[in-house]
Amino acid sequence: MRLVVDENLPYVREFFGRHAELQLMPGTAITARDLEGADGLLVRSVTRVDAALLQNNTSLRFVGTATIGTDHVDQSCLAERGIHFASAPGCNADSVVDYVISSLLWLVAEQGLQLRDQCIGIVGVGQVGGRLARRLQAYGCQLLLNDPPRAVAGDTGLVDLDALLEAADIICLHTPLTRAGESSQPTFHLFDEGVLSRLAGKVLLNAGRGAVVDQQALLRLLQQGQAPALLLDVFEGEPLLDASLIDQCLLATPHIAGYSLEGKSRGTEMLYQAWCAFTGQTVCQSLPQLLPAVAIDQLHLDVACSPEEACRRVAHLCYQPLMDGWRLRQALKHSKDSAAVYQQLRKDYPVRREFASLPVKAASEQQASALRALGFAVTNEW
Ligand SMILES: NC(=O)c1ccc[n+]([C@@H]2O[C@H](COP(=O)([O-])OP(=O)(O)OC[C@H]3O[C@@H](n4cnc5c(N)ncnc54)[C@H](O)[C@@H]3O)[C@@H](O)[C@H]2O)c1
Ligand SMILES: O=C(O)[C@H](O)[C@H](O)COP(=O)(O)O
């Protein structure tokens, strides 16, 4: 059996090597020709899987994407051709939540505020938004949650978008990208000029998909000084980036919120499990056997800092999003080819581990409970 695989899937040889012949290549370079005679295709979000890619292919039986988002895959086209499809729901959700918490702890400290005192609106309360809500709620933040599809399905504790926009200090976007015809609540340009113009003085963080925000409208509002403060991990039109937008963000990163080692590797593992189930093979590899030990064995905190200070220090030791923002700005200063910059930074992304991988010993019960709430592996007995 032959699988065509995006080379940016960690541990793909370890998982699939003994089950199939692998043809590794850059995800952006995969063509219909490469798929001739292949049994399976494993991609990330940068490969558009549609009628043009599948053309007259008669050999493909399985397509998998090692990502949460599936907007790059034409699933009805796969279904029409009887090709099995698998994605990796939730694989990097904790990585995105770590990214959001680390970014917000930085932001509020810059503003002389406390995260605990903020009212945070979460739009899209699925794997990412739901886990973010659980951590922030345990930490003590006031939350407003918006998710119309879940409201229709009977979930409680949700508010409408108007109420959220009105009251939240910080708005975090975690919806999929859907268009009219695909969903009764499409998210394409959900944050259009009308919505964005209500956000002046607030903070907007988008770690969902770029086109949920109307980027041209956002640029117009920035010009008028009427835009929210921006923390953006995703952009409309990726891989192309608008350097002027990036310059005006408090934090801009090249779609790496989900790029923890655990998050990316879980995506490969989930596809491996789906492939084994599809082909009737036995699962004989698992991620804990492959992941390296964390570089820090145990972190001991000093007694003399507040719970929020402790959380900020530990979060930024584990992962500092400002470094990703700095790398993007530096690279764009030296190159006009924003797509190449975007692709290179993501390809060479440094190893980053999730909060939960870091054992921390707190100096007080208050520190311990704050750290635990935000997702760290606290080793104290309290
Ligand atoms: N930046 C990154 O690195 C990164 C990483 C992972 C996922 N993502 C993106 O984040 C999205 C969400 O991930 P997830 O794992 O939480 O997905 P999910 O499917 O578990 O949850 C998405 C939630 O959004 C809700 N939703 C749909 N339409 C909505 C609307 N119009 N308004 C409000 N809510 C709406 C859904 O009902 C669902 O509860 C993914 O689809 C992906 O595009 C980005
Ligand atoms: O949807 C996802 O899982 C994320 O957006 C993921 O991090 C995208 O990474 P990519 O496939 O673009 O490497």
From TrEMBL:
Example of a GO biological process term: pyridoxine biosynthetic process
Domain spans labelled D-isomer specific 2-hydroxyacid dehydrogenase catalytic: 9-280
Keyword Oxidoreductase applies: yes
EC number, as in UniProt: 1.1.1.290
GO cellular component, one term: cytosol
InterPro entries: D-isomer_2-hydroxyacid_DH, D-isomer_2_OHA_DH_cat_dom, D-isomer_DH_NAD-bd, Erythronate-4-P_DHase, Erythronate-4-P_DHase_dimer, NAD(P)-bd_dom_sf, PdxB_dimer_sf
Amino acids binding substrate: 45, 67, 259
Residues in Erythronate-4-phosphate dehydrogenase dimerisation domain copies: 290-375
Subcellular location field: Cytoplasm
Ranges for domain D-isomer specific 2-hydroxyacid dehydrogenase NAD-binding: 110-257
Keyword tags: Cytoplasm, NAD, Oxidoreductase, Pyridoxine biosynthesis
Entry-linked SUPFAM superfamilies: Formate/glycerate dehydrogenase catalytic domain-like (SSF52283), NAD(P)-binding Rossmann-fold domains (SSF51735)
Functional pathway: Cofactor biosynthesis; pyridoxine 5'-phosphate biosynthesis; pyridoxine 5'-phosphate from D-erythrose 4-phosphate: step 2/5
Domain of life, source organism: Bacteria
Binding locations of NAD(+): 127-128, 147, 175, 233, 258
Assembly and binders: Homodimer.
Its biological purpose: Catalyzes the oxidation of erythronate-4-phosphate to 3-hydroxy-2-oxo-4-phosphonooxybutanoate.
Name used for this protein in its record: Erythronate-4-phosphate dehydrogenase
